[in-house]
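call fold target=Haloacid dehalogenase-like hydrolase domain-containing protein
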Amino acid sequence: MSQIINFIFDFNGTLFDDTNINYLVWKYSFEKRGIYLTKESYLKEHIGKSSKQTIIDIMKTNNTKIISDILNDKNKFLKTILKKGVSLQKGAEQLLNYLKNNSNKYHYIIASMASTNTMKLYFKYLHLERWFNMDQIILYDNSCLPKPNPELFIKAMNKLNASTQNTVIFEDSLTGLKAAYATHVNLIIAINYQSKLIELQSLGIYHSFKDFSSKNLQILLFGTEKY
């Protein structure tokens, strides 16, 4: 395997373990409208989707005002939770610091299905400006096809001028991992993956870690412990 120098991170569930937070904000937003969303249903059917698609699938409508109202409710509740204090996935800050301190060698980017408004909240409360520029990350915002289409990741690779041989993609959802697989990059790593491992193996993905702190993950990426 070629040396990995380009790092592409999904955000929700990957860099930021917000699975429970996202479920709560969606549950709150839909219950206001008389719809009860179970956690099992959320995990099975909606992880990795865009917010707009989640609303369309659950509300069975494409009405612009309804979608906008639900998104506003979701972000208001999300802001309330983020204000209480949150942190990135275990080991993520250490990895990002290492990449930043060696930016002459490594390049990294976020490629997320999150909307611009939602990502601005994450930047504010997680202080993502320590590593990323809001204008330089890749967000969905209807500007490309949603995962499992690989377009979001391909845009990120183009932004980094990356090749499939020297790039790693980190993802947490099966939908996102399918998108990563479709890019044909040499290395795909599942982080915080909560479904059956056999689903990963069917895609030829054999690297799965709970978070970014693993010694074995560091050895896989760099050949030795680095952070």
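return ok
Residues 4-15+86-220 form a domain with the Rossmann fold fold (CATH 3.40.50.1000). The CA atoms of residues 218 and 224 lie 6 Å apart.
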